[in-house]
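Much of our argument rests on the idea that a fold can be written as discrete symbols. The record that follows shows the chain in one-letter code together with its fold in token form.
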Amino acid sequence: MLGAVTRVDCVLTGRAVPFRGAERSAIQKRAADGSVRVGWLGLDGDEQADLSVHGGPDKAIHHYAFDHYARWAEKAPAHPKLSVPGAFGENISTHGLTEETVCIGDRFRLGTALVEVSQPRQPCWKQAHVMEWTTLPKMMVREAKSGWYYRVIEEGAVAAGDAMTLEARPHLDWPVARVFGLVMHKTAVRDVEALRAIAALEVLEAGWREMAKNVGEA
């Protein structure tokens, strides 16, 4: 519903550090103190180690629902990283917004910034490595609990406790979970018409549109 308000529980940033051998990563985020500037490429103080697959205007900010932590804690009840936000490399943590309720193209007033949902997140091996949980990325894909990214429409600032207000929802038919499922669940029955519609969804990041086209033509 337009005008709906969610509170930001935590704003997180991370620096690129040694991760696995010569590999570097900034997936391990920490809660930021106070207000953080939101620029075109994301939050001040946040880094990406491999700019060929992370960061950029269409992956400026990563949002992961803290709502999902209880589900993962059921699978790994003693995991030390599931008690506070940051286990999934997220920049924004909230309760009440999930892949089922957030749509591609949604625009949120995030603190004083304006951001737009650009694509689902695609889990990778780094998530498994940081959590020491080899099957986690596959589970995230299977359950469509992947998170999503924003592009920045207007720069500003955000802090924990700030409001996230839904200002626009132009694509009600395309929740993040639906797009993720149609493109990533390649063993499911293909809805060719839906995949063609996703491929034509201009607000969706170009790589995801190309994947939708390829899956639809397979």
